[in-house]
Amino acid sequence: MTPDVQSIAVTLRNGGLAVMQFVTRNEFGSRQATDQAVAAEIAKARLNAVSWRRMTPDEIPADRAFRAAWRDTGVITVDMTMARRIHCDHLRALREPKLSELDLAYWRASEVGNDKAKAKIIAEKQALRAATEDPSISIAETPEELAAAIPAVLTRKYTG
Length: 160
What we know:
The chain is of the alpha+beta class. The chain folds into two domains: 4-60, no CATH class; 80-154, no CATH class. It is built from five helices and six strands, in the order E-E-E-H-E-E-E-H-H-H-H. A hairpin with a 4-residue loop joins strand 1 and strand 2 (17-26). Helix 2 runs antiparallel to helix 3 (115-129). The chain is elongated.
């Protein structure tokens, strides 16, 4: 048996948004989704809620890339300031293995005294570090535009 659920948007004290499913019917029985019952479940979950509202399942965004930036203003929206922070963290994770690869290349160039290669590696590392400052990140107006803002330095292969 597929449970019947009521979707609940819970605004948290820290500004975040929790989405909970209040089960109204399953194989163990049924219950009403009264205000008191929903509030009791929120308290039981220790969500530290400021407010909550019922919503339909289709109000929940399918794209969860910026889930931690969701806010409830009567509809679920994405706080773009928070989404930019999340995206920059993602870009940092993408660049980490590239920086490690360049560290190794730098040591190899140092061993043979190749100053030209070292200078090229230093420039590439600086470009990687600047990836989170790419203008496409700050001008993105939608979560979709932001997700697409991946600086080329993070997608290309360093060829030395």
